[in-house]
Write a sequence for this structure.
């Protein structure tokens, strides 16, 4: 497992710092504005590049899933991608495909960048 560079977790950390600094203090109620301000005023260069890579990855996976979103093997509905998912035994998976229709969950050990590579190689 390569859980050390979990980009979605790093982004969540940045968002929670932005929330603490700009939302909890009442400066704004909009999380995108809070993140923007945080990146401009408070973020370290490492955080800025992590956030840029992460947002690129999230945009890329959205585009990829538009053309090749997997369908549920049970009911055929399109599956929804989730991040940092716990299974019933409390094990954490970096990504998972979930069926909103019938509740089927397909847990993946791929991190977001790994999943992008898999989807790109399938074409
Ligand atoms: Zn289903």
């Amino acid at each position: 497992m390569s859980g050390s560079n979990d980009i979605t977790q790093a982004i969540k950390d940045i968002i929670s710092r932005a929330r603490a600094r700009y939302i909890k203090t009442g400066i704004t109620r909009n999380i995108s504005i809070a993140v923007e301000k945080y990146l401009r005023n408070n973020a370290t260069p490492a955080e800025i590049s992590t956030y840029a890579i992460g947002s690129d990855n999230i945009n890329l996976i959205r585009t990829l899933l538009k053309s090749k979103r997997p369908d549920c093997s049970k009911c055929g509905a399109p599956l929804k991608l989730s991040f940092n998912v716990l299974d019933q035994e409390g094990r954490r998976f970096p990504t998972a495909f979930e069926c909103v229709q019938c509740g089927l969950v397909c847990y993946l050990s791929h991190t977001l960048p790994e999943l992008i590579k898999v989807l790109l190689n399938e074409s």
User: Anything to note?
Assistant: The mean pLDDT is 89. Helices lie at 7-23, 31-41, 45-68, 112-122. The pocket of zinc ion is lined by residues 72, 74-75, 77, 99, 101-102, 104 (CB under 6 Å). The radius of gyration is 16 Å.
